[in-house]
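Form P-L/3: holo structure prediction, ligand histidyl-adenosine monophosphate.
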Amino acid sequence: MAINNVKGTHDIIADEARSFDYVENVSGQIASMFAFQPVRPPVLEHSELFIRGVGEGSDVVRKEMYTFDDKGGRSLTLRPEFTAGIIRLIIQNKLLATNELPLKFYYCGPVFRYERPQLGRYRQFNQFGVESVGHNSPYADVEVIALAYTILQSLGLENVTIKINTLGDETSRNNYRAALKDYFKDKIANMCGDCQTRYEVNPLRILDCKVPEDQEIVKHAPKMSQYISLESQKRFIKVLDALREMEIPYEVDDTLVRGLDYYSETVYEFHYVSAKGNDYGAVGGGGHYDKLVHELGGPDLPGTGFSFGVERLVSVLSDDGLLNNKQELDAYVMPIGEEAQEHALNVADELRLLGYKVDICFDNVKLANMFKRAEKKNAKLALIIGEDEIKNNKVIIKDMETKEQTSVDFDALGDTCDELFNKKECCGGKRECCEGDECECKKGE
Ligand code: HAM
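OUTPUT (holo model):
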C-alpha cells in the first residue's frame, strides 16, 4: 500500500514551490533594505523554551505542540513559532552585549502546530518573520509594521487591513485581567471548556473565543481600552501617529489580543480577503514583547516583531492572479538520436555557463513532440541537433515566438543567443570580452 503524507502537511511542488521562493525572496530582500539580517535557528528546541517563552496559558503550548522525548530522554519540541527560538539564539550567543541595539533579524522556515486542518490552516506550515530586539522605542514597532506593509505592497496586496491594538503594560493587563475575571465570574460555568481553562490561566484569551454563544457574552465584557495606563496610551498614540504620517492605513480593534502570551503594548494582525472571497485567516501578526528576553534568561530588554504565514500569502496571491510561477526556459535543446544527446549536453553546458536557463530532451520522440514540450516549458528558443549538425559542428536555433530559424556554428552559439536576447547587462566576467577594457557587455550599461 502506498504511503501518504501526514495529515495537515502538504507537498509544495514546482509552480507552487516557485511561488514560495518568490514570496520568501521578496520578503528577505525588503527586510535587508530595512537592515534586518538573516538568521536560521534550528527546528528542534528544548520544550521548556516554548513553555516559558510562549506561555503555558496559550493554546499553542497547551494543545498544539509536537513534543517528544528523544533517545537521551530530553523533551524536545518542533518549533511552533520562531520568536522564542530567536530570543534564545540572541541570549545564548551573547549578541545583546556586543552589538548596537536593536538587533534586527529575519527568518524563514517551517513551523509545526497540531491544529485541526482547514482552509489556510496546516500542521506544518512556513513562516517568514522579523524580530527587532533590545530597544524600547515605539518607533521600533512602527519600523517593523512599515516593513511588513512594504512587503505586502511589493507583493501586490494593496487592500490589506492592519488591525492594531494595545495590550498596555503589565499593570494595565493585570487590572484588565481582574476586570474580566470579575465580569465572567458568574458566566464562565456556561461557557466552552476552552474558555473555562482560559479563565484560570489567561482570561484575555476568552476574548478570542470563536464559539457563537460565547461571543455573545464576550460582546458585553469590559473593554481593554478602559484599563490601559496613561503611559501605554501615550506610547500607542505615538505608534498610530507615526503610521498615519507614513500613510500606513490601520484599524484600531480593541478586541485584538493575539494567541501567544508574551505580548505587551502594541499588537497587530494583517488581514486580506482575496478577490475570490476566500478568507484564509490573518496573513500575519505580531507585536511588542516586554518580558520575553528576561523570561528566557536575558537582560530586561523588550523586542518587537511579526511573522507572515507563507501558505496564506501564496493562497491570496494565487487567488488574485498576482503570481507568475510558470516555468520559463531560455532554451530547450532537442537532440535527434542517441549520438546527438551527448552534443546536447555540451550545448546546454555552454549556455548555462553564460547564465541561460536550459533544459534537454532525452527522449527519442518525434520533433513535433519535442516542440510541444518546448512550448509547455515556455522555452524561448528551441535548439535542434541532428546528424548534419553533429557533422558540421552546428546548432539550429528556432525562435519559438517568431518561428524564425537559423543555423549557427557551435562556437558562435553564445554570441548568437546574447544577440537574440538583446543581452545588455554584464555577464560578470564569464565571457572573453570581459577580460579587456573594451568589454562588449559593459557597453550597454
Ligand atoms: P502567529 O499569529 O501565531 O504569530 O502566526 C503568524 C502567522 O502564521 C499567522 O498570521 C498565520 O498567517 C500563520 N499561521 C499560524 N498558524 C497557522 C496554521 N496552522 N497554518 C497556516 N498558517 C498559520 C506568531 O507566530 C508570532 N511568533 C509572530 C511574532 C513575531 N510576534 C512577534 N514576533
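COMMENT: The chain has 17 helices and 16 strands.
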